[in-house]
């Protein structure tokens, strides 16, 4: 479907809601057979890729967003100060929430779109498909790598460095591979439920603990102590863009929503699921960012779960482990499913329980898991990895494409339809594209400098190290 075939009314929200009524699949004349624009012919003998209800979708969305990035937000506030931190967080939230809404409407305008590489093909042809597809795949594998790194930190914290850190990363990889290999999002939605309750319980416990504790774990343990939080701080340019990049990472689950809405039973409920998701996400991010930094000041840890003393560090990480595993599993599933669909799309093996189907699927999950394991072992500093991924790939997945997508579907209007609201949305879309490009370039430079400095401090010995990576958190 091209942009010229889409009639857009002056009221964007009303028209977008009307588009939610379009079915993305239909039942054929063969009983028990469904033809889907992405997955092709689905029968009762194969996996049901369209089994997600709207509430399970909201939980999957929320768990995709609340996981790894939230644990770096208090440290970002420590760089920026409380007031600039809140302003930057809300600004990023506004842009990404709009971007996520555009994902839903674009998917319904173009049911054949499965992932952001399809968007790239519509916008920029074969070159766009190649660039967006490679970026999407690399990004989610990098995020999965940061998930394995955070799991190793948690296991080190709980066990008081019970074994070599590389072993913990390997354990995270093995468990991730096993559960990632469940074939449909509907069948792993229970993992999202467990993970969401787990990470929210850990965050709530941490927030209470830092409020009642005498002082943070890394603060001087002798003498009087008072939090040194600041409303405004004066970071260098590189420090500021790195902190903002960490916030972008926290909100950068946008591109995964294509795959999630593609597996919904009824995509017209996407907006409902998104509203629930973002209400929980933004409230959680603001709460943990402000409260933890207010009580811990410059002694806040990253990941934040290590901020509340030695005992509470074990407790919070213990509560969080299922949530950290859930995030890593879901994100690994999304990247593996993307490769799987691209390899078998157009073939009956995509929806059949054939040997080729299973061999391809397990090969994808194994390959994605091993690659993420290598990333987690090679860049073992959590904050540096989060900032680098958020800057280099997170903006390109959450900002620029969505601005282009709105323009693609709405640019071709008659002069009589070009209202003030239309001009505002054109300006807004351009702002999203330009701001994302600036953050991508500046944030990547700042993050690379930080990674280089970390390697200088460790002499390069941190990669594949047995050293306790929870000591600094």
Automatic annotation (TrEMBL):
Residues 52-448 form the Amino acid transporter transmembrane domain. Keywords: Membrane, Transmembrane, Transmembrane helix. The chain crosses the membrane at residues 52-73, 79-103, 123-142, 154-178, 190-212, 240-262, 274-295, 315-334, 355-379, 385-408, 420-445. InterPro entries: AA_transpt_TM. The keyword Transit peptide does not apply. Belongs to the amino acid/polyamine transporter 2 family. It comes from the Eukaryota. It is a multi-pass membrane protein. GO terms for molecular function: L-amino acid transmembrane transporter activity. It is found in: Membrane. One of its GO terms (cellular component) is membrane. This is Amino acid transporter transmembrane domain-containing protein.
